[in-house]
Input
Amino acid sequence: MRTDYEDLAKRYPVIRAIRQEKEVVWINPDKTSYIESMEGQELTIEDVDDAEARLLRFAPLIMRCFPETKDKGGLIESALCPIPRMKERLEQKYGSVLPGRLYLKQDSHLAIAGSVKARGGIYEVLKHTEDLALTHKILQPDESYEKLADPASRDFFSGYTIQVGSTGNLGMSIGIMGAAIGYRVMVHMSADAKQWKKDLLKSRGVTVREYASDYSEAVKNGRKLSDEDPKSYFVDDENSRDLFLGYAVAAKRLAVQLKEQQVAVDAGHPLFVYIPCGVGGAPGGISFGLKQIFGDHVHCFFVEPTQAPCMLVGLATGLDHKISVQDVGLTGQTHADGLAVGRPSGFVGGVMRTMLSGEFTVRDAALYGYMRDLLETEEIFLEPSACAAFEGPARLGTDDSAQGYIQENGLADKMARATHIAWATGGSLVPEEVREEYKNTYLR
Output
């Protein structure tokens, strides 16, 4: 699609700032109340409940295939932990003014795949597995899903293929779970994907196809190849409702964790959540789920790299997937490989248009600063893309636009009782030699 940059810049000043690679804070002018935002929505809380129930049915299979999940009864879940020393570092080093408490949601340490993609990616593989198993009577509705790990079931699934396009983490979740069940798995990876992720997948028997171009091209080629095979299933990160719902289940799990830690979320205790964003599926699904649980008491913000703010460009212009970051003069290239996406999900953009509170953009250099800060203060390692989450807490209390949002929403006198969650999206599977490379090259 051809776009007139000068016209867009005149109509949407944030586009000019984006083109200049500035770190921006964008407050969504289309955000409405939760009730209004749900008008005409395709998905509801009942769909999230259904996804949660499906994951419970698969718990016996997950425990059998991945014994490390036994301590959680087959649930793939991450810790929610306070990070007071990191909060203090943000205040001292960056001048952050962040009343309330700061937590880290460690989806970076989710079992099996070590990233937020373990939620949506693994869920979609399981949903497809259930559909095949019930249709072909490999499994009866009243049988334990552990049966799907038996040799006869694995032999059946080996006749089917799952394919996906990925910058890295989604491919890891699809590849690891798909291979464990017995599928042939093919992951189409863009040039931005890290070599260690490709190597890990290959070690699990997954076929990796590499493309010199970006994420969108990998998805396009993967979809085309899958469509040519009637026994192949394509996981469509740009449009999948199943991926989206797998991510949304996180909200119900988080609600339990907040209650266990006696953290209130209500009219007097607002919740702010900051999630790194690539194509939009994971942050969109999580935010949708959070809105179902907490309504107007939760304020969701996405964070994107200055060179690849595809969701921000799509939302700010109203063009969604019809515009890319390249259309406004950016490269789409970033060290945050999981966020290196040039064109957003139109489906997620449509859902988030009236739900999302706003966006932050962050320079690559700042990601390494946050990476170093978290290591030094909390001894937690995250990959660069996950560290984008800290741009929100660092700037919420000082940026004029963000302060305007707080005032307009009547939150000023409630901020001291607020809870802030930086959503860590990946990092625990990074090999030690790669961690050392980060430390010796970028964290010195």
In short: The two ends are 43 Å apart (CA to CA).
